[in-house]
Design goal:
Strand content: 15-25%
Helix content: 25-40%
Number of helices: 5
Largest sheet: 7 strands, parallel
Shape: globular
Oligomer: single chain
Strand order of the largest sheet: 3-2-1-4-5-6-7
């Protein structure tokens, strides 16, 4: 297992939900954390992480965040893409605003972060990328096609990172949870007490980040209710 002490990780969507729990746990276990969020002021100073503005819809935001992270810490070893949105976007909706927004935030956002971090992950020799996808990226189980399409794309992105980064020591994992008890699932028709907890998802992220190059896990599906495996 890799020793996280001194290693640097960028975590997007760190203001709340899964991203916040990931940033907290990684910091507590020895990582130096660069937290990307729309309003850095929303992160409590007690979190003890480097907070930097990151807006997924802005083309140059990822580059600025990565540059600031390396300027602060002198290196970059891992990226966790947790930022995402989930408006309703159905197949027969004539208005494609929600579809387009999810493509910009859920797909192009993490792609740009990875691209900005790439030379530093290569230099690390043990670079790591974890993309928070979804079980909606493995099957379509409700009418929000736009969200599913974006998360299918995140899985594809992860596979390409693994393919292109393998010889450089870069390892990538798509983490695919179902319902997680966060703000995003507040209106879901499933008991919150039976949903996965964001801190449990964070534990999975911490685990895959520590795995050596010889024991990579490309994909993890996380269920809170029974589903037949594909």
């Amino acid at each position: 297992m890799l020793d996280p002490a001194g290693r640097v990780v960028m975590v997007s969507g760190a203001a709340r939900g899964i991203g916040r729990e990931i940033a907290r746990l990684l910091r507590a276990t020895g990582w130096r954390v660069s937290a990307g969020l729309r309003d850095p002021g929303k992160l409590d100073a007690a979190e003890d992480v480097f907070a930097h503005r990151y807006e997924a819809e802005e083309a140059d935001s990822a580059e600025a965040w990565a540059a600031a992270t390396v300027a602060r810490f002198g290196r970059l070893d891992a990226v966790v893409n947790s930022a995402g949105i989930n408006p309703m976007a159905r197949l027969l909706d004539a208005d494609e605003i929600a579809h387009d927004a999810m493509w910009r935030v859920n797909v192009k956002g993490p792609m740009r972060v990875i691209r900005a971090a790439w030379p530093h992950l290569v230099a690390s020799g043990e670079g790591r990328v974890v993309n928070i996808a979804s079980l909606s990226g493995k099957r379509v189980a409700n009418e929000n096609l736009g969200y599913a399409m974006s998360k299918f794309a995140v899985v594809a992105l992860t596979q390409e990172v693994r393919r292109q980064g393998w010889d450089h020591g870069i390892r990538a994992t798509a983490l695919c949870p179902g319902f997680v008890a966060t703000d995003m699932t507040a209106g879901a028709k499933w008991p919150r007490a039976q949903m996965s907890r964001p801190e449990d998802v964070a534990e999975l992220v911490a685990t895959v980040l520590r795995l050596p190059n010889t024991a990579t896990v490309g994909e993890i599906r996380v269920n809170c209710r029974f589903e037949a495996l594909l």
